[in-house]
Amino acid sequence: MKRIVALIFIVIPSILFAGQAPTVCHNELSSWIKAKQKLSIVDIQSAEDFREHNYTDSLASGNNPLRLKKIAARLRSAKGKVVVVSATGGDDALQATELLVRGGVKRTRILLLEGGMEAAAKNAACDCCKPSSLQNTAK
Predict the structure, then answer these.
(1) Which DSSP symbol is given to 21?
(2) Domain locations in the chain?
(3) Model pTM?
(4) What is the mean pLDDT of residues 117-131?
């Protein structure tokens, strides 16, 4: 029963705010990274996809609610935008956004990577993406 209630609290807000989730394209995110703008990148891709392609200084969470809760606690007082990166930019990114919001991150700070990492990988001609061995992981 608790799982059903928890699922409802995750899915319903995702549906209600699906059309309202602001996005950022790979090129704009790349320019923010190069300009060293204050931002946090929360990567919810699977471990395998993360190893294949990710952004510098990404916080890898998988789509693990406990890791997202820990990341949300760290990001509550951080400055700048929070970009959620998923494989495709779909419902999993919206659900991760809701978990971050419930963890205290202001919704107005959160953006989704448009089309997810699949779209970014097709357009990636930059040095903002690094192998995962150089990345941070949420602990």
Answers:
(1) -
(2) 23-137
(3) 0.77
(4) 67
